[in-house]
Amino acid sequence: MLGDLLFAESRLALFSQSALRPGVRKREVFGWAMYDFANSGYTTVVITAVFAAYFVGGIAKSAPWATFAWTAALSISYAIVMLTMPAIGAWADLHAAKKRVLAIATVGCVLGTAALALTPQLGGPYAVAMAMGLVVVSNTFYSYGESLTGAFLPELATPEGMGKVSGWGWAFGYLGGMLALGLCLAYVLSAQAKGLPAAHFVPVTMLITAVLYGVAACATFALLPERALPQAAGARQSAWQQLGHTFREARAYRDFMWLLACTVCYQGGVAVAITLAAIYAEQVIGFVASETMMLIFVLNIAAALGAFGFGYLQDRIGHRRALSGALVAWIAVCVIAASVTTKGGFWWAATIAGLAMGSSQSAGRAMTGILAPPRQLAEFFGLWSFATRLAAIVGPLSYGAITWMTGGNQRVAILSTTALFVGGLLLLLPIDMRRGRAAALREEASQSEAAPFEAR
Fold first, then answer.
1. Per-residue model confidence (pLDDT) at position 203
2. Which of 83, 217, 214, 102 is CA-nearest to residue 148?
């Protein structure tokens, strides 16, 4: 594995130094991208491909409320993140502690993921309750880590190269997801060939995912420096005071606020794809576990290509225009998935979804990096996490509720998801990236001018 990581680092030589800020070394970007590589296995294996479907079909025994219970567990974790991450981000900015908090989040997610291996050993409601609780814990810490990683992006990339560097990270992350899923798939196929049940091989996939997450994240902590400096003691406010100030001054960041509203809509649809793709494939289309894992593997390949290529495209044609194209593709995915009845047709929907997923997620992180004031990166990425986690509640929970209310009709639920992407398109219209960037830099200039007086 070390050889693979060294090979990956050497590939950064293909990427232009002009996309990076002065003084930023490519090894630092590699270290940053390694966190995307590390944590993608969690979403790929736990949230999308393996544990989600096992929870519904194995632990909850395909009960009418099973899909709703799964989305409810995720929604609880996202609500926790919404209520806490902005203040955590503000505290990390004040104390220049993004890396420290990231380490805590990493340990929490790794331990929570490993503990999921215990759930198949229980029976009845105890297994359901324990699985839901551990998903809440692991997904909360995962979400903290995702937000804090994003806050390093503006310290590494120039505004003109933000899309490229964000795309590098997302693309590399999908490679990590494929590695985790590939290792799990190899074990699952071996176990199935021996006639072993899911209750045997699902726990092993959780352990594989946890170990890969922890090992790969070590590269991030070894190579990525904390470039921010603690704010002077006399200039500090509490994290909640700083957060309140940001909300009061929201008019100065109106383009960022429009982006948050847009994010709530379209990321709600993306969250449906991430959390429910495997469930839909198995419950509606008729995939078996090994076919589902192969489907998600191909989806990750498409997502990696989408994120990497889209990063260059959005820097060339503009972030708003490029994100609009990705949202149109998402609408097509929902319509195709709701109408197809064959596995072949669903493969087409999944491939388009992969391209659109990599593109839309890369764009959202890059746009946030451009519109965030340089002195408040973790705080503003915390607000971005607030929006993405609210979206992750609205999207999957509404999907689960519609499925329950329609007697298990997931085709109606997936078709209704188009409304979220249409809403995202409409909320993109008021955003002016140049105006938003100018507002972020104006705030930075005013704080720099005030600093000598505050220190007295």
1. 92
2. 102
pTM: 0.74
- Burial of residue 187 (number of CB atoms within 10 Å: 0-12, 13-18, 19+): middle
Residue 135 vs residue 309, higher pLDDT: 135
CA 452 to each of CA 267, 277, 403, 440, 449: distance values in angstroms, whole numbers, following the listed order: 41, 54, 59, 20, 7
Burial 267-299 (b: 16+ CB within 10 A, else e): bbbbbbbbbbbbbbbbbbbebebeebbbbbbeb
Distance CA 402, CA 396 (A): 10
**How far is 192 from 196, CA to CA, in rounded Å?**
5
**Contact (Cβ atoms closer than 8 angstroms) between residue 23 and residue 187:** no
CA-nearest of 299, 336, 324 to 415 is: 336
What confidence tens digit (pLDDT) does each residue in 216-236 have? 999 999 999 988 777 655 444
The pLDDT of 372-393, averaged and rounded, is 80
C-alpha–C-alpha distance, residues 358 and 305, integer Å? 7
Rounded distance between C-alpha atoms, residue 167 and residue 327, angstroms: 17
User: What domains appear along the chain, each with residue ranges and CATH number?
Assistant: 27-224+248-445 (1.20.1250.20)
Average pLDDT, integer, range 120-131: 79
- Residue 29 dihedral angles phi and psi, to the nearest 5°: -65, -40
